Amino acid sequence: MSNTKYKYFFKKNLNENRFKFITSVILISSLIIIFLLDLAFGSVQIPIQQVITILFGGESEKATWTTIILKFRLPKALTATLAGAALGVSGLEMQTLFKNPLAGPFVLGISSGASLGVALIVLATNTTGVGLWLIKLGIIGDLSLVIAACLGAALVLGMVLLISHRVPDSMTLLILGLLFGYATSAIVSILLHFSENNQIQSYLQWTFGSFGGVTWRQMVILAPVILLGLIMALLLSKPLNVMLLGESQAQTLGLAVQQTRFWIIASASILAGAITAFCGPIGFLGVVVPHLCRNLFKTVNHKILIPIVAVMGAILALIADLVSQLPGSETVLPLNSVTALIGTPVVIWVILHRRSRFS
Amino acid sequence: MKFLSFFFQVACIGLLIIACNNTSIPPEISTTSNNNCVQNYNPNTDYLPAKATIKYATGFSVEYQNNYKVVTVKNPWKDAKTSFKYVLVECGTPAPEGFKESEIITLPVNTVASLSTTHLPHLAKLEVVDKLVGVSNHKTVNTSEVIEKIKAGKVAELGNNVNVERLLELNPDLVTTYGTGNPQTDSHSKLLETGLKVAINAEYMENTPLGRAEWLKFTSTFFNKEDIAEQEFSEISRKYQEIAAKTKAIKKRPKVFTGFNFKGTWYVPGCKSYAAQYLADAGAELLCSENSSGSTPSSFEDVFERAATADYWLNVSQSWQSLKDVITADSRYGDFQAVKKGNVYNNNARLNESGGNDYWEGGISNPDVILTDLIKIFHPELLPNHQLFFYQKLN
């Protein structure tokens, strides 16, 4: 199926250029608008003029508003943008690599690894002492969760990468990833079993996901890592296109499949791992955004898809964040429920709509 | 085939006999291993002279008869559809009819397992720690009498997810626990199935500090120690009211906020909660959510907008021991006036090595001490000689 579409794309190359221009204009402008909306709306009502004044460095009527916009909403919106882009691209890479529409950023057990790290800190403080040891290091502070999640994700990623060199086909890798996931969640369950209610509550809070926990100090780490992962993905777009033909075909075309696979996994995992570490396991976006983009823009060319998926992912993440803040009310909703609740109908509509036109 | 029908007949007859017996036997006389049971029961004697009267707590009631009392827990957890009744029958006297077997408990209770640390100070105040045989976690206990008994190896550890087999082996006369309404984590139904007598203590549902502390009387009914409970509690409530009266006339009430941000969510207590009551009695004003007794998940920015200029910040994360801990947790906390002025107080002064906080154990039974701490924080001129007990200032 993908094969024919690929040819179709080359025939329509000229139209494609115009299409590319229009879509990029539409996508980028929607991204900017939604980014600004996310800054303008939140639990606290701040007039739009005031928001603009603050963004251009002016004095606002209330000092708290400046803090809210610059220290709360701006890093939150940036995090949402980065997270959406990272998870979308990571999911796309995994779907192409495993030729499986259900694959997502976390199929290789990265979020389970991260959750194990967090569980060790949050749940096992009094049983293992790991958490206390990290807290005593002091310098880490709010980063202790992030570092634990990173270590957990890196552990799983390392094992997957090591194995990817030894296993010939991707399907085995996928199954191994699933198994790693089961093993880590089993350990998390054991920790949960021995924990106090308030610790379980903290852990659950982490699994709900949030863009609001990232401060500027953390952004300095998060942003470069995500940009690195995205650039890696862009550089991989050509091999990714070849991978669509299947591994044996790609091999005959002269692609070093083993090596390519290594880099694809590395890039996807850095993106997913970093976001999970800083924001918790954000579900749904990674699986759905690639589908949405392939369906809406009718292309499987990664040179186009990767940027589109990144922008679309960012837009969806920002919308989800906006909704989860329930503008005007003083309460908030868990982010993960919002991404799934608003995302599902959109995707169902897109898929069904497309099917009916093709039948 | 013949064999089967024979079996069936025997089973039917057996069942009939059991059914007949159930209706015909006279009321069972309650007995325990204790030898101090009533010997010659006289229906006109009041066997339960010590009586409790409930003044502040709204979650339970006690009704007295000559040889038994009925304790009702009206509101065992949030939005509960059921209530619990305990029929406490004096040993050696007949149990009243019309109650389920699981609701009937023989008095006085001689062995008890407590699955929540909040029940331990009650046992200490009622001087019945010698009857305690099991707790859920040895390490989180702060009540000194209980710690001594644990060190002597006389208290079993049952685990946060109750180890039912251990508990059955201990076979205590009573298990005190609490319910949350979540059948996945609540242990009482599982324990009731095993035939153990389970008492649900719902003190955490009370919206006033004195209401919570009055659950001491609930525990006392199981040991016939209502007289001690009445005496202890009237002393606590007298001290509480006395010290609360000092702040009544105060006009300048500092603004206070509580809690902390975790991953974008900040739980703000309700204005009808016991926390709001504490602060009102301590002559301060709590940032709270209207018309609510529970806590509301709010966003960090919302709390910041409302509390940026507040004077004090209380009850922060249990792991924070200094202002530096606060800032490293999230640099944005530094923008609160209370942090700039250094007015951050935490209720973790009495944390044991394993993180068990006495504030949530002894504090619930001694609200007068917590209130004294709070008044010392907001209006030190009223209590020049008091040293903070449960609270500490973060520097």
Polypeptide structure, described:
The complex is a heterodimer of chains A (359) and B (395). With 359 residues, chain A is an all-alpha fold. Chain A has a single domain (2-358), classed as ABC transporter involved in vitamin B12 uptake, BtuC, CATH 1.10.3470. Chain A has helices at residues 2-11, 13-40, 48-55, 63-98, 110-122, 125-128, 130-136, 143-166, 170-193, 197-208, 216-235, 237-243, 247-252, 257-279, 285-297, 302-324, 335-358. In chain A, helix 2 (13-40) runs antiparallel to helix 4, helix 3 crosses helix 4 (63-98) and helix 5 packs antiparallel against helix 8 (143-166). Residues 126-141 of chain A have low confidence and may be disordered. By secondary structure, chain B is an alpha/beta fold. Chain B has two domains: 108-238, Rossmann fold (3-Layer(aba) Sandwich), CATH 3.40.50.1980; 246-393, Nitrogenase molybdenum iron protein domain (Rossmann fold, 3-Layer(aba) Sandwich), CATH 3.40.50. Chain B contains 14 helices and 17 strands. In chain B, the strands form four sheets. Chain B has a five-stranded parallel beta sheet with strand order 7-6-5-8-9. Chain B has a five-stranded mixed beta sheet with strand order 13-10-15-16-17. A four-stranded mixed beta sheet of chain B has the order 1-2-3-4, with helices on one face. In chain B, helix 7 packs antiparallel against helix 8 (226-245). Chain B is globular and about 80 Å long. The A-B interface holds A 42-44, 63-65, 67-68, 71-73, 76, 125-126, 135, 138-142, 193-197, 202, 205-206, 208, 210-213, 215-217, 280, 325, 330-332, 335 and B 137, 139-140, 159-161, 185, 261-265, 268, 289, 296-302, 304-305, 308-309, 319, 324-325, 327-332, 335, 354-355.
